[in-house]
Each structure stands twice: as structure tokens, then as C-alpha cells.
Amino acid sequence: MTSLAELEAVIATSSSAIVAFSGGVDSSLVAASAARVLGEQALAVTAVSPALASGELDGARSVAAAVGIAHREIDTDELARAGYRRNDSDRCYHCKTELYDRLAALARAEGYVSVFSGANVDDLGDWRPGLRAAAEHDVRHPLVEAGFRKSDVRRYATALRIPSAEKPAMPCLASRIPYGTEVAPAVLAQIDRAEQAVRSLGYQDIRVRHLGALGKVEFGAGELEDALEQPDAVTAAVLGAGYAEVEIDPEPLRSGSFTGLRPIPLAVTN
After folding, report:
1. Are 101 and 77 within 8 A, CB to CB?
2. Cα 14 from Cα 30, distance rounded (Å)
């Protein structure tokens, strides 16, 4: 059985730390625990790039303030890396290498002993090339070290009243692009516009998958039935973002299930 005391004991083995901080529930629990244990020797850092969805930075700022950790924003330029733009199955490796290069440089410059991530035990069973980049930069994963699974993270985040305790997962915008399709700023911006337009309808747990001219919308299980019953507003929102075709996936959103697909022709929904 995991406990917050175990997580805090792991964090206490470092005298100071930077937390790679997205504002999602995993990094938020690490940040909250680091603030409790390390106080002013803990710093949450959020990477800002074209792959960051609108609203995510504001959310990270709010969570950092709520848990009482110092917060900083840095710019990352993963789009300058050919391996990232090429968007093979190791895209996340290039993205995380860019992030951890920047965080390691910041840690060296300002004397932080460790860099922490928000990876949990459940992440170890997924295809996570970013973990290879973390290993190459000696990044620590306190949730893994303390044996925390996603369910543990959400339970303790709720107990601590962390604002992101029930926040749906929000991977970077590039995760909506199938492997082999180049990542470009205009594509990321189009995906972002489409998702924000759908969220403006009241939906939260969604992805707009980029399949060339087609935007394929996935909804979480709790919102899918409503979307299928009222597709016109969703279709109009995605068309308004610049897609020529729209499809609503009849199956619930499955995080991580998409990027291995190749673009294929799909029917128009309008």
C-alpha cells in the first residue's frame, strides 16, 4: 500500500529539485510533495512550445500557486530537432531530450541537485521513449520510486485538494498526428483551434486526431454518447478550424492508441 509518507521520503533523499511540471495530476502531486518537503528548494518548470495546448500554461500556473511551489516557464524548441519533426515512433524521445537538456542546464546553473518527472508505475508498461531520454539525463521519477500507480496519484491528489486531481490526461498536441506525418507549427495550431472549439461546446476529455484534411474527434467515455447524439455542433466546430472533413469516433478515447496509425481516407460527416 502506497502512502504520501513514502513519496515524501523519496523526495527527501534530494536536497533540492526541479520538477518537470505540466500541471497534469502526476506532475502536480510530485510538485505538491516537493513543496512540502523541500520548500524553497523546489521549483516547478513548465515548458512552453507550439505543442502546448491553449489553456495548459494558465492551468499549470494555477496549480503551482495552489500547491505553494515556485513556478517558472521556459521555452523549448523541439521543432528544431529533425527527429521530432520527422515524427517516427521515437518522437517523444526527441521531445523529452529537448526538455531535459534545458532542465539539466537550468539545474546546473542554479544549483539544483535533481530533476524530477511525473512518471508513475503504470507508465512503465506503455511505449514511452521519453523514459529513455530521462535515463540519459539522470531524471528521477519519485512516483515510480514510491510505487505509485495512476489510481494512487488521483487518490492522493484528491486528498490534498490539488486542483488537477480529476483533470483528464492532456498529452502534447503532436500526439494527435500519426507517425510518419511531419510535425509542423501550422498543423499543431490547427489541432489546437479544433480542440478549443470543441471544448467551447462544454466537452473536456477530447482529442482531434489530424488525418490530413480530416479531423477525427475522440471523446472520453463520459461524453461520447452526448456527442454522438448531437454531432452537428461538433462537426461545425472542427470544420471552422480548417478541416475539410470531420468524423466522430464511435469508440471512447483511448490514450496512446492513435499515433501508430497512418492516414487513411475516411468518410465525411456533415
Report:
1. no
2. 13
* Strands, sheet with 70-75, edge to edge from the N-terminal-most edge strand: 70-75, 42-48, 17-20, 114-116
Q: What is the largest CA-CA distance in the chain?
A: 57
Separation between Cα atoms, residue 20 and residue 69, nearest integer Å? 12
Integer Cα distance of 44 and 6 in angstroms: 21
Radius of gyration of the chain from its Cα atoms, rounded to whole angstroms: 19
Cell numbers given for 33: 510533495
Q: What is the pLDDT of residues 92-131, one digit of tens each?
A: 999 999 999 999 999 999 999 999 999 999 999 777 889 9
Q: What is the pLDDT of residue 226?
A: 95
Is 80 exceeded by the pLDDT of residue 255?
no
Q: Which helix (H) or strand (E) holds 216?
A: strand 214-219
Q: What is the spatial distance between Cα 122 and Cα 116, in angstroms, rounded to a whole number? A: 17
User: 19: which 3 cell numbers?
Assistant: 520538477
Give the whole-angstrom CA distance, residue 94 versus residue 179: 14
Domains of the chain with CATH codes: 4-159 (3.40.50.620), 173-248 (3.30.300)
Axis-axis angle for helices 25-38, 4-11 (nearest 10): 70
Query: For the segment 213-232, what is each residue's pLDDT rounded down to a tens digit?
Result: 999 999 999 999 999 999 99
Average pLDDT, the chain: 93
